[in-house]
Amino acid sequence: MTPRAIGQVLFFSGVGVAIAVSILYATKSTAQNAGESRSEGNAAPIYGITIPSGYREWQLISLSHLAADKSDDPALVEARMALKQLRAQLGNDIAIKAFREGKLPFPDGAMIAALHWNEASSDENDKVLVIGFPGAGLQSSVPKSAVNVQFMLKDSKKYAASGGWGFADFTNGKPGNEALHKTCFGCHQPAKDHDYVFTRYAPTP
Ligand code: HEC
Fold first, then answer.
1. Residue 111 half-sphere exposure toward CB, CA atoms < 13 A
2. Pocket test for ligand 1, best of 119, 184, 194 (most atoms within 8 A of CB)
3. CA distances from 30 to 33, 41, 49, 158, 192 (A)
4. What are the tens digits of pLDDT across the range 111-131?
5. pLDDT in tens, 155-165
C-alpha cells in the first residue's frame, strides 16, 4: 500500500468505517454551479466539484484535532503514532452567514472547506514555553505537511440525492477516486439533524 492509502485506511478505520482504497482515479467532470468562481483543475468524481479559488481566504468556522489514540488494533499501534491531524473548517460568505445565524438547512451556494494537516510538536515553541511556564509541561503542536482538503457544496437541486450536498476531496490539488467519494454522504448521515454538517460554529473568544 502507498503511504496515502495507508493513511486513508487508518483515518477511516479510526472512526469506524473501513473503505477499500483503489488507485484508480475516475474523474467525471460535470458542469459547474454558477455563483462560485473556481480555479482550473480536475473535478472530483460523482459531484464534479473543482477547488474553488481563494478558499484559503474564507472565514474560520472551527478547528478540530484528530488522533488514533484510542485504537486497540495492534496493527495500528506503530502507525497510529503517525496519525495526528490538525483540521480547520472554513466557510464561504453564504456558509458563514448561515453558521452565525444558526440557519438550517444551509442555503444553496454555501460551501465548507475542511483543511487537514499532519500535526507536529514544535520544539521551537516548547523551548520558550518552558521558560515562561516552568514545570507546566506545556507542549505546542503546529500544522506540518498538508494532508488533503475536502469540500461540501450546497445545491439542493443538483445534489438532491445526497441531502443537497456535493462532496469533493483533493490531495496535492488532485481529486480522490470515485470509491472514496462514494463514502462521503453515507458517513455524514449521523449529522442529518444539522443538515449533514458535523462542525458547529466555534464560540468567539
Ligand atoms: C468515516 C466517516 C466520514 C467519511 C467517510 C467522510 N467524512 Fe467528512 N467528516 C466526518 C466527520 C466525523 C467530520 C467532523 C470531524 C472531522 O473533521 O474529522 C467530517 C467533516 C467534514 C467536513 C467539514 C464539515 C462538517 O461536516 O463538519 C467536510 C467538508 C467533509 N467532512 C467532507 C467530506 C468529504 C468530501 C468526504 C468524502 C471524500 C467525507 N467528508 C467523508 C466523517 C466522515
1. 26
2. 184
3. 9, 13, 8, 11, 26
4. 999 999 999 999 999 999 999
5. 999 999 999 99
